[in-house]
Amino acid sequence: MADLSQIVKAYDVRGVVPDQWDESLAELFGAAFAEITGADAIVIGHDMRPSSPGLSGAFARGAAARGTGVTLIGLCSTDELYFASGSLGLPGAMFTASHNPAQYNGIKMCRAGAAPVGQDTGLAEIRALVERWADEGAPPPAATTGTVTRRDVLGDYAAHLRGLVDLSGIRPLKVVVDAGNGMGGHTVPTVFEGLPLELDAMYFELDGSFPHHEANPLDPKNIVDLQARVRETGADLGLAFDGDADRCFVVDENGDPVSPSAITALVAARELAKHPGGTVIHNLITSWSVPEVVRENGGEPVRTRVGHSFIKEEMAKSGAIFGGEHSAHYYFRDFWNADTGMLAAMHVLAALGGQQGPLSELVAQYDRYAASGEINSTVDDQAGRLAALKAAHQDRAGVTLDELDGLTVTADDWWFNVRASNTEPLLRLNVEARDAATADRVRDEVLAVIRA
């Protein structure tokens, strides 16, 4: 019996090629995706990894063999695939392993309108079909093979984004962009073309071997080059995209990282100016500043668990205009509730270019507290350590506990959250406080229990 448990994750397919999966499995995934969605046609895109064209082509053959029409959009970012799914009204599949090393590849799937496909929304059924067909053989082809066509949507994607954020009137800005040899090198030149931006392009050559650094800007070592270039050139800001360019990380004119919570608050304020009284989603480890800014701007903040499936589900349910996560994923109602780091970056450029001050001053109003960042601890007994933390705090005066996602403990001047990793023996700690000394004290107290 084929076992796909190592590569079928909560939200996508991801594993080492060809050790864990290959084109023969990709073809079965294409057939299963066509079967489960029941679509007449689908759209497929891929990133710059060496294995991506072959895997995406095999997926297309599998879907076409079931009688499903296929539109191939070729090289694209993940949010460009979401644009294609939304604008064409088709289910989609994106071949990428995002920020993972070169030997990995994966599939992010969505239904028409960029609606997510995860374990509870079709991925479990797709896995079951692939496992069955891997053992019994693929089903016989449909009477009529689906037509495979090619389409370039990059220009339409760029035009759609530029229609959502007007950058034409901003003051000229010098911006350094580190694409990490990922798909930002493909999308940024077209999106930024003709705008009042002096673009300093770093690592725009598409190269799935990632010769300069991993395409994961949340790891501080991967933005060192960007920070240095911003400081050396006197740029107004720096932007770093991950491998599939759906996440964007920002550094200010001093080369200092801007927290994704501050970006979430800034974008929320701008979206609320367009959609007064709207709802904004934030996960439970974003800063206190996010719900504060949302309320100050007349909006309604809604707190969710960590993870894009929870954000997108809540956005669809509440009609939210925007959602943000600590991981630099940003979701927009105007983009089919899907995440697009490019659109968030354009909001930052518009906000910065619409006034005269530097970015560090602009974001200071949204960055109000001291935070630990995420601290991971290897723990054999995750449940036991969480229980010990709960026992240590449940009778303390002036604190509240909730277990929406892991354990969150909140006091007047600090809070912390501890969550177990779904895939590794780790506990993840995030602390925030009104001052750095308090944040350090709470961090050390909690780690003492976690690592006891």
Structure overview:
Keywords: Isomerase, Magnesium, Metal-binding, Phosphoprotein. 36% of the residues lie in helices and 23% in strands. The chain has four domains: 13-152, Alpha-D-Glucose-1,6-Bisphosphate, subunit A, domain 3 (Alpha-D-Glucose-1,6-Bisphosphate, Chain A, domain 3, 3-Layer(aba) Sandwich), CATH 3.40.120; 156-254, Alpha-D-Glucose-1,6-Bisphosphate, Chain A, domain 3, CATH 3.40.120.10; 260-341, Alpha-D-Glucose-1,6-Bisphosphate, Chain A, domain 3 (3-Layer(aba) Sandwich), CATH 3.40.120; 370-450, 2-Layer Sandwich (TATA-Binding Protein), CATH 3.30.310.50. Strands 1, 2, 3, 4, 5, 6 and 7 form a seven-stranded mixed beta sheet that branches. Strands 18, 19, 20, 21, 22 and 23 form a six-stranded antiparallel beta sheet that branches. Strands 9-8-10-11-12 form a five-stranded mixed beta sheet, sandwiched between helices. With 452 residues, the protein is an alpha/beta fold. α2 (52-65) links the parallel β2 (41-46) and β3 (69-75). The protein is built from 14 helices and 23 strands.
Biggest beta-sheet profile = 7 strands, mixed
Structural class: alpha/beta
Proportion of residues in extended strands: 15-25%
Low-confidence stretches: none
User: What's the CATH architecture of the largest domain?
Assistant: 3-Layer(aba) Sandwich
Number of helices: 14
CATH names the topology of the largest domain as Alpha-D-Glucose-1,6-Bisphosphate, Chain A, domain 3
| Extended strand count | 23
Top CATH class of the largest domain: Alpha Beta
Family: Belongs to the phosphohexose mutase family.
Pfam families: PGM_PMM_I (PF02878), PGM_PMM_II (PF02879), PGM_PMM_III (PF02880), PGM_PMM_IV (PF00408)
Cofactor: Mg(2+)
Keywords: Isomerase, Magnesium, Metal-binding, Phosphoprotein
